[in-house]
Amino acid sequence: MYRKFTILAAALFLLQAAGPGVAQAPIEEELNLITPVAKTLTDPTLADFAKYAKEKWNITVKTSALAAGTPVAYGQIVEWKGRPQVDIFWGGESALFDKLAEQNLLAKLTLPKDVIDAVPVSIGKPMPIPLKDPKGFWTGTVLEPYGLVYHPKVLARLGVPEPKDWDDLLNPKLKGHIAQCAPTRSSSSHATYEVILQRDGDDKGWEWIRHLGGNTGLFTARSRDVPSVVAKGEFAAGFAVPSYMAFEDRLAGFDIKFVAPKTAWITPEPIAVLAGARHPKAAMMFIEYLLSERGQRVAMERGVFPITPKYRVQGAPGSTAEMAVEFTGGMRSYFDREVTNIYEDDKAQKRYAEVNEKFRKEVESVIEDLKKKY
Amino acid sequence: MNRLRLSLTPAAFGYGLIWTFLIVFVLFPLTRIFYDAFTNEAGGFTLANFLEFFTDSFYLRSFWKSMVLGVVTVFTTSVIGIAVAFLIVRYDFPYRNLFSYLTMLPMILPPLVGVLGFVFILGRAGTLNVLLMDWFGLEHPVNFMYGMQGVLLVETVHLFPLMTMSILDALAKVDPSLEEAAQGVGAKGFRRFRDITLPLTTPGYVSGALLVFIWTFADFLTPLVLGVQDLLAPQAYLNIVQFVDRRIFRMGIVISALLVILAIVFVIAARQYVAIKDYSSLAYSKVERIQLGPVKRWLAVGFLGLLMLICFIPQVGVLLASVGRGWALTPFPEHYTLEFFRAVSIETPKFIINSLLFCGLALLMCLVIGVPMAWVMGRTRAPGRDTMDALTTLILAIPGTALGIAYVRAFNFPLPFIDIPLTGMWIILPLVLVVRRLPYTVRASLSSLQLVHQSMEEAAANVGATRLRTFWDITVPLIWKGIFVGALFSFITSLQEASATIFLTLGGWEMIPFGIFTFYIAGSQSQAAALGVILIVLCALCLYAVNRVAGTRVGGLFG
Amino acid sequence: MFTLLGPSGCGKTTLLRLIAGFYVPDEGEVRFDDRRVNEVPPHERGIGMVFQNYALWPHMTVFDNIAYGLKLQKIASATIAERVGSVLEKVKLGSLGDRYPGQLSGGQQQRVALARALVLNPKILLLDEPLSNLDAKIRISVRAEIRKLQKELGITTVYVTHDQEEALTLSDRIAVFNQGRVLQIGPPRELYERPQSRFVADFIGINNLIDGTVQAADPARKTLTVTTAAGELAALWDERLHPGDTCVLCVRPENAAINAPVDGQNRIKGRIAFAAYLGNSLRYDVELEHGQIFKADIRDPWHHEEFPVGTAVSVSFPASSTVAIAGDR
Question: Could you give the angle at which helices B512-521 and B350-379 cross, rounded to 10 degrees?
């Protein structure tokens, strides 16, 4: 039996290798991503890239995206040990990309100079958020804030005003009506906890986190579940949600709203080509496409912001781009305004496990006590 | 004197191949996770991982909560399962045949779909709560679902048919004369039921209970959706899917290994318990059904009807969600659309295609491997036969999560010549499906083989048929129903498999359950629901075929 | 026709299966004529077998059941039809070829099984308790048919049964089995009239066994004198028995008479303990003075006035039907 499969596998492999003129073609006929970015953003960009490739080189690229949370994707890439089964890692925290680069698991980007130069080095004050890797292993692709979501109808029924800032979630009337994902499971949640900790300092910060724990009705398994349960009206408000995830639920017809507090962390959704990727040319072309106006426009339709000041979210009245602008409070580009960032990534990365461990001990393990206390 | 002896023939070679398959695809990966669980990062032997588990209050709480959940689920499914089984097997009442089919249906609740369906109807913003709030001015929604009570509800509804089928099978094998003998000495009604009938169904019951327990024990998706993370299976899953912290990752593997160890312990315990008493009476006996009186008759219908009403909550919820757009805070969706079905079938047909392809392949392999296995167990004295028998029971008990993880760990090395690891080839999905679902084919084939007297085969040998020819011309036609039922069961359960495949699926290989999972985690619950509806319909059709061929007697599958 | 007779579990079926080739002997040899067949697979042994449960394949018609072996030999279908037709005629099932086994009566199924075994023209026919699943009445007629057919075909047949009456009526020779051992082989009459061991005597239906010691042997008059608890009795002479040997005397109930006026026979006193009316005979249980029960038949109950229980009687039987068996056998 086993031997049969080996033969089968070998045959399959030969079939693949025998593809016509692989070596000469400008890009390979296949492209695979591993990504924590929801498929609502990856699917349209990949589909449009395939169209683009067809138009430009008359090559049919078979694309696929392996959905995996940031930590999972990271772990998977490490597990692959330089023999990755996908070509690109897209999304998550830039610090993880740096870690991968240190382990020689990323390939250096070979993008045209004008393309990479269009991406600013950083954004935000007092702590600048890097938008590309000075060593050239990764670059940001789009900008998106981690904010709050809420369901206006449910809030109205509870008699709670619409939240503007993180602290509005501590409203006693919201007790049991908040959904969040543990920082151990979600990088957006982790980053936002760091925002709180760095804003309030450790003691007050942890008190705040415990208080939010007491108000929480549901710890979801993944960050993407947070806007889902709020959109459905199961819970009134959600903590630390990437803007585009919430926007997808809005697009799906749900009555959900998003707000990015002033101190909300903004992620550039980094992207990198994996060392040893089987389709390196297609991978590089995809990144180039993503940074082009065409790619940026496709992304903007889904509720994220351009990575470069060259473009702004703009569409015909009634278009999804305009809906996105309205959904995120009228903003068209992060480069139009002062961006406040108090989150210090180095600090966060150094105590990454420590914060998770403390969360497990002081919130997760004693959640019933917290619910009684607050 | 020997019964058929396997000599160095093609048969022995085939037998060797089967063992090779079992060793490579069952034993080897399992040893790999045990290796992981008992070593540290440096690769040295250590018990520290387990020590850490048993000294961590959170893990300990997870452990006990898992146990309690398992036991309570066994209890609830027993009560319902036994009641249903007895009604169906012993009594006649209106719509009896319909109910006997319907009561099997809850079993085909794909992972996630069941719990999502329940949430749509019984969630905090589900139909029931919305109605309560709209009509009765209820201020805070009633929390039916989020928490242990929700997990228990979902598992009970999902798993009681397993119990029913196990008991049905056992009941059908109880010789009515034993009960009549009891009546002869004055045991009547409930007394007779408790003292004679129920104990006689013990083997069926124990295997059913074992399966329910382990299933509940190993299910991580349901608790996760309902926000219950302090159970073993969700902990294993959550720890493993975060690869960043190697220590937590290893704890996930430790928990998986623990799940396997516990499953082995339970299987051995159950086997010991059943083996104490010899219940062997293989022939199915014809049972006279008792016509219920007018009141009792409608009570039975009422009970089953109500049960079905609860059982079909998830299906109704999922169906509504699959055609409703932006459904929130209203009892029923306000906008209806077929766009989600179009999206998951016509626009991206890969889920359905992959499912049918991989599960079809798995089905074929189940037949090629499982039927000969059953034959070896039932008809020969080949060495290793008993081990093989125990192994099939064990496979049934191994949590899919653990198996998936074992595969990831064990098959991640590049194979010679082709330089691609097995985990990088799609064939790993049908392979893991075969391993997971093989026992159904083996069990069903074996139990129908045992009903065929060996002289049927000897008679063929006598007139000149070779072993193989006999098997093909005589044995197979006589047991094809059993094989068919078992294989179809393997197929249905493969279609629904997610726990092992979630860890192994790469882009392009997505099957329906994985699609449901990714749509769900991408927040597209309606697409997830649409895929769920498609899967349910597919499985219901298969189950209907099973029902037509075999009635409800498919319990022998789970021994 | 050779019959293996013995109680259930005595090993007769095992022997049959060894002959058929379903079991392989751990030691010893199975020979057909002079050919050792230990390693010969069942289908190459030229054997036709009829199973206790007939083992008719329920998914095939009667015709297909019988034709299966021929088809395996790749015989032309016209020839098959012809041979199956003729064997069906032989077992008087000419018109039932297209039925399924489930549609036949037990007797018919039995004959199909026989036809299936015969169609390949086997050198040996093996019958494993072929009548045990039939009603008592049909059994007798099928029994006669089998015997007739076997004689007609002249085929060596090994027949397994636990029914001594069946064995006696059917067989040319009988082997009596117990606990895996053959105790005696011989034609029915020899077995019946000259059992050589206590077990054979008992199994073949001799109900009165009396222990004793040989007192005197008289080869000239062909008699033995035996001392028993019931007194001194005369028995048929046996060259293997000498004065002083322990022995068992066997007396059939039908050879014993009650209160018979005849002289020169063995005669024992006792009391009637029980009487059972069997229709063609009346069987008395007579309690002898030393406590043993002795069975004696009245062969014509019509003309016999039944003795009440307790009546003192004498039982008599001729020495010529009293067989002595060595005590250790």
Answer: 130
Report the mean per-residue pLDDT for chain C. 85
CB pair distance less than 8 Å for B325 and A252: yes
CB-based contact A239:A212 (threshold 8 Å): yes
User: What pTM does this model have?
Assistant: 0.75
**For an interface test with C, which of B463, B466, B471 has the most C Cβ atoms less than 10 Å from its Cβ?**
B463
Q: What is the dihedral of CA B424, A274, B518, B398, to 10 degrees?
A: 40
- The 10s digit of each residue's pLDDT in B448-481 is 887 788 888 888 888 888 878 888 888 888 888 8
> Are A214 and A245 in a shared domain?
yes
How many domains does chain A divide into? 2
Name residues whose C-beta falls within 8 Å of residue B307's C-beta, 6 or more positions apart in sequence: B80, B84, B103
pLDDT digits (tens, 9 = 90+) for B392-448: 888 887 888 888 888 988 898 888 888 788 888 899 999 999 999 888 888 888 878
Residues 6+ apart with CB under 8 A from C284: C258, C272, C273, C274, C275, C295, C296, C297, C298, C307, C313
At C296, list the tokens: 């004696």
Residues sharing a CB contact under 8 Å with residue C185, sequence separation 6 or more, in sequence order: C173, C174, C175, C176
Chains B vs C: touching, with 3+ CB pairs under 8 Å?
Answer: yes
Give B164-219 pLDDT, tens digit per residue: 888 887 777 666 666 666 666 666 666 667 777 777 777 778 878 888 888 898 88
Pair (A184, A47) in one structural domain: no
Domains of chain B from N-terminus onward: 15-550 (1.10.3720.10)
Give 3-state DSSP helix, strand, coil % of chain C, rounded to 5: 30, 30, 40
User: For B12, how many CA atoms within 13 A lie in the half-sphere containing its CB?
Assistant: 9
CA distance B492 to B104: 12
Residue matched to tokens 């307790």: C310
Q: Where does B219-293 have alpha helices with state H?
A: 221-225, 232-241, 246-276
Is the bond into A126 cis (omega within 30 degrees of 0)?
A: yes
Looking at the fold, whether A275 and A367 belong to one and the same domain comes out as: no
Neighbour-count burial of C172, counting CB atoms closer than 10 A to its CB (0-12 exposed, 13-18 middle, 19+ buried): middle
Round to whole Å and give the CA distance between C57 and C75: 21
Interchain CB contact of A253 with B (< 8 Å):
yes
Q: Name the residue among A142, A151, A153, A168 with its Cα closest to residue A242.
A: A142
Q: Report yes or no on A334 lying in a domain.
A: no
Q: Which helix (H) or strand (E) covers residue C231, if one does?
A: strand C231-236
Cross-strand pairs, B402: none
For residue A236, is it within any domain? yes
| Partner B contacted by A12 (CB < 8 A) | yes
A362 inside 8 A of chain B by CB: no
The helices-and-strands tally (H runs, E runs) of chain C is: 8, 18
Determine contact: A78 vs chain B, CB below 8 A: yes
Residue in this structure with the two tokens 């349910």, named with its chain if needed: B536
Residue A158: domain span: 144-266+344-373
Cβ <8 Å between B417 and A232: no
The mean per-residue pLDDT over the stretch B47-51 comes to: 87
C295 neighbors C235 (Cβ within 8 angstroms): no
Determine, for residues B328 and A184 on separate chains, whether the beta-carbon distance falls below 8 Å.
Answer: no
Two structure tokens written together for A90 = 């897209």
Looking up residue A369, the CATH number of its domain turns out to be 3.40.190.10
ipTM of the complex: 0.72
- In terms of domains, do A149 and A170 share one? yes
Place of tokens 């991503």: A33
